[in-house]
Every structure is written in C-alpha cells, then in structure tokens.
Amino acid sequence: MANIVVACGSGVATSETVVSLIKGFFEDHNISGVNVEATDFKGLAGVLPNYDIYVWIAKPTKEIQDICDREGIVDVNGVNILTGNNSDDSYKKILWALQKMTM
C-alpha cells in the first residue's frame, strides 16, 4: 500500500481539505490501495520517512527536503490541489510517483 502525507501548520483545516480532495480524485479514477493522511508541520520530520509521497501546503524547509531526497519521497505541491489552479500538474505527479513505485 502506498502512503501519502499532507502537512500544514496545524494538521487540521487545510491539510484535511487536501486529503479529502485527493481521496475524491482517487475515488473518481478508481484508484485504490493508497493511504492518505494529514499531519501538522511540527511533527512532520519525525513521521515523514514512513510515507512515499509528501503533499505540501507550505514549501518544504531544507530539513524536510533533505529527508525527501534521502528517503526517495516525492514531494508534491498541495496548494495547486487546494486552490484548483494547476491541480492537474499535482495529480499527475502523484500518479507518476505511484506508477514509479510499482516498477
């Protein structure tokens, strides 16, 4: 099973909204086997290695980007999903990362 984490400042409103939008996208496209969760940014560094894809609301810090690079975690712009502007780009990157995992 693939694991996606969405992080915002508190892990509540914005990240939960993006989680819901991603789950809706997966349902609309008959994609299963993907766990999507929200977390707060303060605890992200400790849990990030447990995930395959990181959807960010605020651009990743150097520490978070280093973890992504070291662990092979794909980072995706979640602002696009939240606003609906260029959301196709973010969804395509998520799909690309999921396909890459199955190779």
TrEMBL record:
Q: Where is the Phosphotransferase system EIIB component type 2/3 domain?
A: 3-89
Q: Which InterPro entries match?
A: PTS_EIIB-like_sf, PTS_EIIB_2/3
Give one Pfam family, short name only. PTS_IIB
- What does the record list as GO biological process? phosphoenolpyruvate-dependent sugar phosphotransferase system
Write the protein's name.
PTS galactitol transporter subunit IIB
Keyword Transferase appears in the UniProt entry: yes
A GO term, aspect molecular function: protein-N(PI)-phosphohistidine-sugar phosphotransferase activity
State the organism named in the record. Answer: Ligilactobacillus salivarius
TM spans (from-to)? none
**Which keywords label this protein?**
Plasmid, Transferase
